[in-house]
Design brief:
The structure is a homodimer. Chain A is elongated, with a radius of gyration of 21 Å. Chain A contains 7 helices and 3 strands. By secondary structure, chain A is mainly α. A 3-stranded antiparallel beta sheet of chain A has the order 1-3-2. The relative contact order of chain A is 0.07. Helix content of chain A is 68%, strand content 7%. In chain A, helix 2 crosses helix 4. In chain A, a hairpin with a 6-residue loop joins strand 2 and strand 3. Chain A has 2 domains: 83 residues, Arc Repressor Mutant, subunit A (Orthogonal Bundle), CATH 1.10.10; 76 residues. Chains A and B meet through helix 1, helix 5, helix 6 and helix 7 of A and helix 1, helix 5, helix 6 and helix 7 of B. Chain A binds a DNA duplex through helix 4.
Chain lengths: 168, 168
DNA sequence: TTGAATTTTCAGTAATTATTGAAAGTTTGA
DNA sequence: TCAAACTTTCAATAATTACTGAAAATTCAA
């Protein structure tokens, strides 16, 4: 496979993976493009490479910035903004984890804790089943949340070293 | 909060979480309903509780079965099929992980390995950046994949015990 | 200040994804 | 073997999500 084909396939694959995990396909494609770019790219270049409109490019770049995966780069003597992606994969994983935790896990955690306190006849089997499940889920989400905290304060080799040390 | 409100909120919350993670909202809601049901439910009951059509209920139940999260239960002397969800949260987490690994991670892993072999001028900075990123991503996905394997062969208390033992 | 360059917004539209409901298919007891 | 009970399929439709492009807002050099 040559470079041009490889690039195209990477952008496609990353976009598909993103959409399978609830991330806008185009945002993932912009991310893919920036991940393999040796230099910062302008909005124009991103529009051009992915054949998307200015509005679309702008919104998805902003979104990537709000995930801390991309930042602006200012080139002296140039009015345009350029964009550069974080390239370290462990750092990328941490930033995605941090945002998903904040945006999606913690709100659910709070709801589950609320739901552990529903009032109702404890001898009623529906209420019993509900409360049991809320307790189980609440406990699990708490542990997941703490696991993410550990990961966020680790470096890659320590983290995987610990996790994988028992492979046969 | 009373039971009826709590149930409604749990179904809503689980559906929202699912959709944020790329899972059909209704499938997640059917799952939520079955998770808190003390007995197997029929298609009719699911349609009724969630106000969805027969076709929709049927497709999402099939989907949950294909994820190994739900199975059929046959009641002697009854023609209808009833559905029961796996209730153990660690088992649920494993089954979801197993399927996402199989359906989404492994295909990406294979593509990334392919992409590590793109032909091209190594002195070209675009090619260099591309290859470096494919190597980094390939290595990372391999480690994630192995981590999931460990998790799949662990029990909950061992897994979290190991992971959380270093919390200050 | 001014105005050209650039970025952002957002109403309208397109594309994608999910749902309905009725017809076709299957199963099972008599 | 029949036919009622039940499940599955899928074309049509609805709902949701994403995208465009032009206008508005912003920035900045002169």
């Amino acid at each position: 496979m040559n470079f041009a084909e490889g690039k195209k396939q990477f952008i496609q694959t990353w976009g598909k993976l993103g959409s399978e995990w609830g991330i806008n396909r185009t945002m993932a494609q912009v991310h893919a493009l920036l991940l393999i770019a040796p230099k910062p790219l302008s909005t124009e270049e991103i529009m051009e490479e992915l054949s998307i409109s200015r509005g679309n490019a702008n919104m998805n770049i902003r979104d990537l910035i709000s995930w801390n995966l991309v930042h602006k780069e200012l080139v002296p003597g140039d009015r345009k903004e350029y964009f550069l992606a974080e390239k370290d994969i462990w750092e990328i994983a941490k930033r995605i984890s941090r945002e998903r935790k904040r945006r999606e896990i913690e709100p659910v955690k709070n709801v589950l804790h609320q739901l552990q306190e529903v009032e109702g006849d404890r001898s009623n089997e529906d209420v019993k089943a509900f409360t049991d499940m809320m307790n189980q889920l609440g406990g699990f989400v708490d542990k997941m949340d703490k696991s993410v905290d550990i990961m966020l304060s680790s470096d890659q080799s320590w983290f995987f070293g610990m996790l994988l040390k028992l492979i046969k």
